[in-house]
Structures are given as structure tokens and as C-alpha cells.
Amino acid sequence: MDSAAREDANAPNWAEVQKLLAVRLDALGDVLMTTPALHAAKASNPARHVTLLTSAGGAEAARLVPDVDDVIVYDAPWVKATSVRPGAGPDRQMIRRLAAGRFDAAVIFTVYSQSPLPAAMLCYLADIPRRLAHCRENPYQLLTDWVREREPERGVRHEAERQLDLVAAVGWRSDDRRMRVRVPDTAAATIERRLDAAGLDARTRWAVLHPGASAPSRRYPLERFGSVVRALAGRYGWRIVLTGSSDELPLLEPLRAIAPDRILSLGGELSLAELAALIERAPLLIANNTGPVHVAAAVGTPVVDLYALTNPQHTPWQVPSRVLSHDVPCAPCYRSVCPEGHHLCLEGVAPERVVEAALELMRARRRIRRTHGAHGTPPDARVAEHARAQASIAEGGR
């Protein structure tokens, strides 16, 4: 780790930090993939108070994270999803709010394609004395603790691993490296009532299927999802629970119509807490590379992940999974819309592969439950499955 500026003699060392500002300005999945690092920050000093500065989209997830004590919502102008605004008034107001918080230190979490310097400037102007981040260029005084950016030139780590390495640079570590959310009791009770009313219990073969994703390049074709539903619901007698936002209802209705007596659609009806409760109860999630996959990893539910090769670092973390894709020479493209127009990294995945992956994970889950009871997959098995998923994506999912 490089020191980018002469240390303030009055600044606390990292072991002494009591009030921490964690900055993660991305969406739901990115916040969840940061939870192992947040846990390491908290485990290193249980009295440490952790405030997460995040986007409006990330805040709903942040409020379910047990290691986060407070959440501040900030839609930063350097983040793609933020709407254009007429002036810098909200940003000046945020600087004042952070300054009033009197934080001892800030850790800025970014993916390797993002610059931490705008957030570092925000924290610098708020007089936060310690500031840590990965950075490609010399940050000079904006960071007091600089971890040189070496991705992707020297290989790409999983996003959770990347952030764990960042906080390890200042001595914050934990043996427990899982992602985590806390499902509220009220949400769990609501989902239990819905599932009981639908006749879905531990004796039933059922799965949650989430066909949406924020980026078109990360969506498995709807007609292929339809083939998966026909096989699982028709040939194998599974029940299917469809999830998605209100905007994604046009994706859900054609799937529900395939077998209305075997398919329950909860599209547009669930809060994030209720979605987490549903996925926690589910034997299996089938989804694109999108936020619910990381919810599943946080609650320990196996995942069939239709993984578009837009980027390599977001596979399911330490949870039984099958990562399915088709190798293409244009990967990774880092694009929201397929630049080649063929979507082959997903179009090349046959529905039969998805069905077989689902059957395989369901069989494995039932074997594990027979061995370990209701506690499900032990941590070492989750780690082994994660390693297999990483190998799968490295080989193009073949």
C-alpha cells in the first residue's frame, strides 16, 4: 500500500477508527458483494460504527445488512444511473452533512473500471482524515492510503474478494467471508403466509425464477426461459414462483401463462426484504446475472446463474451454483447492450443445460439436507461450490 500524502499527525490509525464512512455508490448487487468487507471492518473492532454512503437503489439493500449501522443516500453526479440535475447544490449539502458526521475514516469501494477520485474529493472536502481506495493514477492528497489498481492487467478478482483485499490492506480481516443480509421477521412472516396459501413447503419441488435484469445484454431470451419453464413445470412437475419489478411484468406474464396452475407470479408485489425472505425459503433460484443472485448468495440459496459475459467478477459468491454461459471472443464487453448484436454468450446456452443444472442443484440440495438437516449447506461446501462456479465462468461455462 502506498501513502499518497503525508499523514495528519492527529488522524487515528486504522485500528483506532471508531466512526467509519463506507462509500459504495452502486446498485443492490454491488452493495451486497461489499458485505464481506463491511463485516471484516466490523469484526476488527465490534464497537466501530459503520455508515454506508450509497445510491437510492443501494440503500434498500444496505438497510438489510447487519454490519451497517446507518445509511446515507447520495445519488452522485459521476454515477451513470443518476439523473441530470441543474446544479451542485445537493453535492455541497452532502459535503456539509459528511463534515458534520465527524468520521474518522472513509473507505471508498469501487469496481476496477471506476475512479475513486470524485468520492475521495467529497471525503477530502468533508475533512475526513483517513481515506482508503484502489486507484489507478496517483491520487496525491485525495487519498491518505492508496492501494494501486492492478485490474484487469494482472487478473480479475471476484468483486467480494477485491473489497476484502482492500480492507485487509489496513489490517481489517475476518475468517467469515460470507455475504450477508438480515431478513426482517415481518418480511419472513409475510412470505410464509404467501407460500402456505400457495401450497409451497419443504416437501414441494419448486424454484424462484427471475427473468429480468437491468441491462438488456444480461437477459436470457424470454422464449428460452419459456422452454425451461415448460420442462420444469410440465415434464418434472415443479412449481415455479416468478419475481420481478412492476416494470418487468411483461416478462412474467408470458411465462405464467405457460402453466397457470403450477406458476405463481409475485411480480411487482414484493419489497426487497420480502424478496430476500422468499429466496431464503426457496430451494433454488434461476436468474440472470442480477441483484437477486447476490441476495441468494447472502442467504445461502443455490443458484442457476445465466451469466452474460459482460464482466467476469460477479458470479455467485460462496454458494452452490451453476454458472451458464457460451464462450465468445468479444468477452468481456462491459456493455449494457450487446455490441455485436448477437447476444451469443446467452443465446448459446441451450434450455436443456439450464434444466439439467436446476435438477442437479436440487438433487444436491436434497442430499445435503438429508445429511445436515434444516441448516442446509455447510460453509466449506459453499466455498467448494463457489470455486467450481469460478472455474466454470473461466472456461466459458462449457
Describe the protein's architecture and organization:
It is a single chain. By secondary structure, the protein is α/β, with parallel strands linked by helices. The chain folds into two domains: 14-168, Glycogen Phosphorylase B (Rossmann fold); 185-394, 3-Layer(aba) Sandwich (Rossmann fold). It is built from 14 helices and twelve strands. The protein has helices at 28-33, 35-43, 56-62, 89-101, 117-125, 159-168, 185-198, 222-235, 249-256, 272-281, 291-299, 344-347, 351-372, 379-394; strands spanning 19-24, 49-54, 70-73, 105-108, 130-135, 145-148, 206-210, 239-242, 263-265, 285-288, 303-306, 321-324. The protein has a six-stranded parallel β-sheet with strand order 3-2-1-4-5-6, sandwiched between helices. Strands 9-8-7-10-11-12 form a six-stranded parallel β-sheet, with helices on both faces. Helix 7 crosses helix 10. The protein is globular, with a radius of gyration of 21 Å. The protein starts with 18 loop residues before the first strand and ends with a helix. Mean pLDDT is 90; it is low at 386-398.
